[in-house]
Write a structure and sequence with these properties.
The structure holds 2 protein chains of 2 kinds.
Chain A: E1 25-28, E2 31-35, H1 38-61
Antiparallel strand pairs in A: 1-2
Chain B: H1 14-27, E1 32-38, H2 39-47, H3 50-54, E2 58-65, H4 67-70, H5 73-83, E3 88-92, H6 106-111, E4 116-118, H7 122-131, E5 136-141, H8 148-161, E6 166-170, H9 175-185, E7 192-196, H10 197-203, H11 210-215, E8 219-222, H12 226-241, E9 247-249, H13 261-270, E10 271-278, E11 282-291, H14 322-326, H15 350-353, H16 358-365
Classes of the chains: A alpha+beta, B alpha/beta.
């Protein structure tokens, strides 16, 4: 990948004074508008994993998978 | 934590997507129509082929959630007229510049000598004002609740600094009144609503409680990755099957019930509710944001140095059906101009111009009407 774009990014934290160094934030037109909740992100991903596991079990029970 | 939870890839797993699609389809007894309010969702849905994958059990309809697209011709004409005045520079986000009003776009006006600057952020417009004390910088305030607080922040900074050559033409619009207008209109059947994730990061998911309470329509607030959207669709399908309409927050990593209180407070301080003109939906009472009296000095409409031209009310481009696309009455390929007279290279209507426009999404990612 040879493309590179020189950028200077300045993000205003006016709308998210609670943001701390290392936080993930949603950025909209140069402003952080929301600090991402890591715990919630993990829980949503866990939900997808559970869904996978449940459907695999169903497949096994119905003999669709060895 | 590991960065897993924020990598888009973590929310794009094809196997999980298939499971969610199957679950959504299995949940509904008869076909349901779900409106994705937000143009960002329309793009993700088309890009990842979710619309076709969910049909026919779940039909996804595009809604009015593209701020540039719902900006009325007359307001674009007004912005162009402002940019054409001596000593006035109009600062705008880039997606607005090619949108045609009745007499061309801001880009056309700039080619004729009007002063138009593209900014990435409202703060850049403040820099223009600081660096060009002889010019009146008019920031076009175009956007929903996601953008309005950023413009409000710029107005507050200007007021704090006493920056006298900065003002805002507020054309901001609010999303719940538009959703209400579509449901009250009754032209389109909407069984469930995919709530706009970034708008709702500001407003909070409670802002959508009128949907289940007043209309019996469930709303799932959704992120923008494929699994976010599919999780929301599945949750809506289940809520419909169980006849338990509710607001479901399926984007909890970014959205809370109350939203961003700092942003909401800033909006309340700088703006007051006003009527707004929407392309396709007409004037909706209390669906826009005007500058509050305390910030009247930063309202382009009040600047004595800027003589505001009367708003034109010219005809919409002949044959353009953006208005119907924005209400979900037709899908973009049903417009006679789509892909023929109207393409991204030569757009007739705003829905083909904007990165968030439904026509642009359909053109780019798939042109089948079904």
């Amino acid at each position: 990948m040879c493309l590179a774009v020189p950028m200077r990014i300045e993000i205003s934290l006016i709308l998210t004074p609670e943001a701390r160094e290392g936080d993930y934030v949603l950025i909209h037109t140069g402003f952080a508008i929301s600090v991402l909740d890591e715990q919630e992100a993990r829980e949503t991903l866990a939900l997808f994993a559970e869904l996978e596991e449940a459907s695999r079990e169903l497949d096994r029970a119905e003999g669709r998978e060895p | 934590m590991s960065q897993q939870g924020f990598r888009p890839q973590a929310f794009r797993d094809p196997a999980a997507a298939q499971r969610l699609i199957a679950a959504a389809k299995a949940a509904v007894a008869e076909p349901v129509a779900i409106m994705e309010f937000c143009g960002g969702h329309t793009h993700a849905i088309m890009r990842f082929g979710l619309r076709d994958a969910l049909a026919p059990e779940v039909r996804l309809l595009s809604g009015p959630g593209c701020p540039v697209c719902v900006t009325d011709d007359a307001d674009i004409d007004l912005a162009i007229a402002l940019a054409s005045l001596p000593d006035v520079t109009v600062a705008t986000f880039g997606d607005m510049i090619r949108v045609p009003g009745t007499g061309g776009s801001l880009a056309d006006a700039r080619a004729r000598g009007a002063s138009v600057e593209i900014v990435y952020s409202a703060l850049d417009a403040l820099d223009l004002a600081r660096n060009q004390p002889g010019a009146n910088i008019v920031m076009l305030g175009i956007g929903f609740e996601t953008t309005a607080p950023t413009i409000a922040a710029a107005v507050r900074v200007a007021a704090d600094e006493g920056l006298a050559n900065f003002c805002v033409l507020s054309l901001h619009k609010l999303t719940p009144p538009a959703m209400r207008a579509i449901l009250d209109g009754g032209v389109v059947r909407v069984d469930g609503v995919l709530g706009p994730g970034h708008v709702t990061a500001i407003t909070g998911s409670d802002a959508w409680s009128f949907l289940p309470e007043r209309y019996g329509v469930p709303c799932a607030v959704s992120g923008f990755e494929p699994l976010d959207i599919l999780l929301s669709v599945r949750d809506l399908a289940v809520a419909l099957a169980e006849e338990r309409p509710a607001v479901i927050n399926a984007y909890r990593r970014s959205v809370t019930g109350q939203g961003n209180l700092v942003a909401r407070q800033l909006m309340d301080e700088v703006f007051v509710l006003g009527d707004a003109r929407w392309r396709g939906l007409g004037v909706i009472p209390a669906s826009g944001l005007d500058l509050a009296p305390a910030y009247a000095a930063y309202d382009a409409r009040n600047r004595s140095a800027i003589e505001l031209p009367p708003a034109g009310a010219g005809p919409h481009a002949r044959g353009c059906r953006c208005g119907d696309v924005l209400r979900g009455v037709i899908a973009p390929p049903e417009c006679p101009l789509f892909g023929r007279a109207c393409t991204p290279a030569k757009p007739v209507g705003p829905c083909m111009v904007s990165a968030e426009g439904a026509c642009a999404a359909y053109y780019r990612y798939g042109r089948s009407p079904s």
